[in-house]
């Protein structure tokens, strides 16, 4: 670990962070895998195998599954969702496209009203309810970030297009994780890893539009929650999630395996085709790109605000502060996991921006 990263980690811990993992790939090679702090207040030390829930920072996994289906000619971004998933094309949703789903533009930001906890991990139930739901008028007048529903819509599109008819979990594992050698990214925790999972605490949201504080006994920290599928989020180790981002940083290929075409990844740097911001939940720094990941936009200077070294960056935040990104120019991929949530929307710069800059200094400087 370089001195800049060490100092930035020490600074984060001094500000109240409990546990951290930081991993990076540079030019396709793993160059950083560090951990610090504890899995819970007063608990065991974090190591490279500790698992963190990173919320929406895990959306990169689900998005990649859909992009792989496009790469294979099974899906076109501009075709209607209903042409792949006929049940979706009701109650005014018949014209929404695959791109609309990727970019949070289908008016289904809210969970179905009867989505009680026992149904949240039931894929068939959630897909059916969302297909039969009427959209809000958000797409016409504003944006509402689809925090928890996005993964079911995007994932069901990818699943419906699969000639083998695999489940979402099998599809992601077989077509994204396995080819890249990624073994520590899950949308549902497997059995036998519970002792490796960090306890999450702190503010996911504070103030408008709601306050959402996670305590040690919160549902997120229970075995029941970890046993539910979460296609809009993921449980990861930083080392393995950074490998997923590394495929983007290397133009779609890693260790001789090409997952996506380089020119396709270039299109993901374009902003989605609307001028509305991502909405209050996602915050002002969340500018959604055409491929469903975040890009630059109203952020005046990525280096000052988010720590990124350049403008050609694909990234995605997670509720509570987790952060993953791929810098296409620097060929740098980074994942930061932690377990002391903060609402980064209220900070002039992302609290992990100094740590991001430190990674650039030590690794890509």
From TrEMBL:
Enzyme Commission no: 3.-.-.-
Keyword Hydrolase among record annotations: yes
Coiled coil: none
Keyword annotations from UniProtKB, A to Z: Hydrolase
Enzyme class: hydrolase
Molecular functions (GO terms): hydrolase activity
Span of domain Beta-lactamase-related: 7-348
Gene3D superfamilies assigned: DD-peptidase/beta-lactamase superfamily
Alphabetical list of SUPFAM superfamilies matching this protein: beta-lactamase/transpeptidase-like
The keyword Hydrolase belongs to this UniProt entry's keyword annotation: yes
Protein name from the UniProt record: Serine hydrolase domain-containing protein
